[in-house]
Amino acid sequence: MWRLLLLFAFPLPALAGSDCVALAAKEATTIPVAYAPAEGVSIRYLAHSMFALTLPDGLMAVTDYNGHIGNPDVIPGVVTMNHYHDTHFTNHPDPRIPVVLKGWGTFGHPAAIDLDLGRLHIRNVTTDLRGPFGEGGEADGNSIFIFEAEGLCIVHLGHLHQELSAAKRAAIGRVDVLMVPVDGAFTMSQEAVVHEVEALHPRLVLPMHWFTPEVLSRFLALMARDFAIAEGGPDVTVTRESLPARPQVLVLTPTLFP
Fold it and tell me: Which residues pair with 54 in a beta bridge?
């Protein structure tokens, strides 16, 4: 009994450098060949704040996974979740997914994720959530997830509610690709989001959480001074060499897996 109590009092540390986890994730994942790029990372905008990141070996990670990615035969190797509202998580993830990473803590301990899956390294930086009406909320209730793969640093800001401190930005580190919520209401104002984007110096920005074309257009107008604006289909394959010389905002079309 005392061992069980100790386990709850002191949660297990985040997984790092586990060959077993890497093997399990790769063997259990069933990704159609068409979704795996020849090189770099394929990024598909699924919906809301869900992106699928797929590596050349077929390992796939899905951000802010809410259980609805389309084709039931596409099984990610790992998913991340946040929990401000239920479009960013599910209490019933597909049991075939080997690794489920929650961006909020338990028993008063913030989420601390440092997971090495071989060609993919995932870590988090926590931020606070405010209450639904602007009142005090949940300390460390949100996670920014950082995906390091194929020489790229891909950052998903999640349901960001406040300006990041210099320490938080330093913990995130270099940003090549930034997924940023641009709704301007449920997260941060669009002006505040633009300030955060500029402070993080990404090469490629992927807007998410925009709800309507009008909301998205207002964000793009704010970004157009210093960033090139481009539109694409549901996915883009990114390599270190293909990163734009001039920082760019790329609007992807949200599309679930067929």
Answer: 42, 60
Q: In CATH, which superfamily holds the domain spanning 15-251?
A: Ribonuclease Z/Hydroxyacylglutathione hydrolase-like (3.60.15.10)
Q: Is the pLDDT of residue 61 over 90?
A: yes
Q: What is the pTM of this model?
A: 0.85
Give me the pLDDT at residue 108, please. 75
The single residue listed with the structure tokens 């209490």 is 91
Helices (H), 78-132: none
- One-letter amino acid identity for 99? V
Domain ranges of the chain: 15-251
Residue 69 in tokens: 């990615």
Per-residue pLDDT for 2 more than 60?
no
Report strand pairing: 120-129 vs 114-116.
Answer: antiparallel
Strands (E), 114-221: 114-116, 120-129, 138-149, 152-156, 177-181, 204-208
CA 225/CA 258 separation, integer angstroms = 36
How many CA atoms, within 13 angstroms, populate the side-chain half-sphere of residue 225? 7
pLDDT score of 206 more than 60 = yes
The partner residues of 37 in beta bridges, in order of sequence, read none
